[in-house]
Q: What sequence folds into this?
C-alpha cells in the first residue's frame, strides 16, 4: 500500500534551516549519537559523485557472496577477497542477527593497489582534486533478489531503501560506515548503478591532490583492507496504540531499533507501515510530528502523534517541540 499522504516538497534551502531548529528541540528532546538525519523524501542517486567510478569488482579477482534477508527482502552481497582473507584477517562477511529480524552486516573491502599509483587524475578508481578523497578499496556489490520487480534507491544520507513494485518502502540498509578501530580514517558510500544493483565504495580521507605523486601512508588505506558495517532491516514499527493525551486522541508509536537509527530508510519504512496499519495517521500534521521525532527524539519510548494538532508545517512543528498548538 502506498502512502496516502501528499508530502509538501522540502527544498534543500529549507532543510538547511533545520539545523537551527535542532537547538530548540534540544531543550526537550536530546539528539543522541546516531540519531536519524532530517527526514526527506527518498530520491534516486543520479550517479557517482565527481571522480567516482561505478565499476564492479574485476572478474579476475576472487569474490565471496552472502545472501542477506529480512522479512521479505532478499539481497546478495558480493565482496572482493583481498590480503586479509585467509591470512588471519577474519571472515570476509559477518552477519549478526539483531532485534526485530534486523541484522548487522560487516565485511572487509581490500585496498585497491591501483589507487596508490602516481596519477594526474586518471587512476582506475578516479582521483579527485584538492582535499577530496580517493577511492582506495575495490567496491562490493549489492543485488536485489526480492521483492520481485522491486528496486533500490539511494537516499540523501547514504542509506539504501528497498521499494516494492508499487514503489512502497519495505526496508533496506543503513548508510555503510567504516568501522576500523585503528589506522587511516575512511568513509564509505553507496552508488546505485542499476535499478536492482548498488555498489559500496570506500575512500580515504586526506588524499593527496591529483598530479602531486602517489598516495602513501594514511591516504593509501589500511594494510588489510577496510572494515565496513551496515544494518539491514524491514520492520519499522513495533506497535501503534491509540489513547488520550493532552485532552485529545493520540497515537503512541514505538519504532523498532533499526528504524530509529538507520536514517531515512528507517523513517520511510516505519511511516509506510504505520499508515498501512493505521490509515487515520495519514495526515500532513501527523507526518510532520513523526518526522520531528525522527529528527530530535529517536530515543523516546514512544513517538506520540495527535491528529487534532494544527497543520503548521515541519519547521513550525519542530520549533514547537513536535507538539504544535496553534
A:
Amino acid at each position: 500500500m502506498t502512502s496516502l499522504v501528499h508530502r509538501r516538497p522540502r527544498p534543500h534551502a529549507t532543510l538547511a534551516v533545520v539545523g537551527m531548529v535542532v537547538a530548540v528541540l534540544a531543550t526537550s528532546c536530546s539528539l543522541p549519537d546516531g540519531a536519524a538525519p532530517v527526514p526527506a523524501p527518498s530520491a534516486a542517486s543520479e550517479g557517482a559523485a565527481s571522480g567516482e567510478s561505478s565499476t564492479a569488482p574485476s572478474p579476475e579477482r576472487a569474490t565471496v557472496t552472502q545472501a542477506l534477508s529480512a522479512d521479505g527482502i532478499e539481497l546478495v552481497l558480493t565482496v572482493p577477497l583481498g590480503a586479509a582473507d585467509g591470512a588471519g584477517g577474519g571472515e570476509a562477511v559477518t552477519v549478526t542477527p539483531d532485534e526485530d529480524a534486523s541484522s548487522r552486516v560487516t565485511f572487509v573491502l581490500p585496498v585497491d593497489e591501483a589507487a596508490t599509483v602516481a596519477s594526474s587524475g586518471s587512476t582506475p578508481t578516479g582521483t579527485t582534486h584538492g582535499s577530496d578523497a580517493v577511492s582506495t578499496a575495490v567496491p562490493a556489490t549489492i543485488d536485489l533478489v526480492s521483492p520481485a520487480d522491486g528496486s533500490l534507491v539511494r537516499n540523501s544520507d547514504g542509506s539504501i531503501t528497498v521499494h516494492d513494485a508499487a514503489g512502497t518502502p519495505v526496508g533496506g540498509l543503513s548508510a555503510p560506515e567504516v568501522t576500523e578501530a585503528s589506522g587511516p580514517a575512511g568513509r564509505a558510500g553507496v552508488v546505485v548503478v542499476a535499478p536492482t544493483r548498488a555498489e559500496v565504495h570506500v575512500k580515504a580521507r586526506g588524499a593527496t591532490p591529483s598530479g602531486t605523486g602517489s598516495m602513501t601512508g594514511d591516504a593509501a588505506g589500511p594494510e588489510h583492507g577496510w572494515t565496513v558495517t551496515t544494518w539491514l532491516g524491514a520492520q519499522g514499527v513495533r506497535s501503534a496504540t491509540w489513547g488520550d493525551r493532552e485532552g485529545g486522541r493520540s497515537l503512541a508509536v514505538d519504532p523498532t531499533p533499526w528504524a530509529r537509527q538507520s536514517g531515512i530508510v528507517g523513517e520511510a519504512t516505519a511511516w509506510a507501515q504505520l499508515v498501512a496499519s493505521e490509515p487515520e495517521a495519514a495526515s500532513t500534521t501527523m507526518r510532520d510530528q513523526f518526522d520531528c521525532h525522527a529528527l530530535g527524539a529517536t530515543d523516546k519510548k514512544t513517538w506520540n502523534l495527535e491528529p487534532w494538532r494544527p497543520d503548521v508545517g515541519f519547521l513550525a512543528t519542530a520549533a514547537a517541540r513536535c507538539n504544535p498548538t496553534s
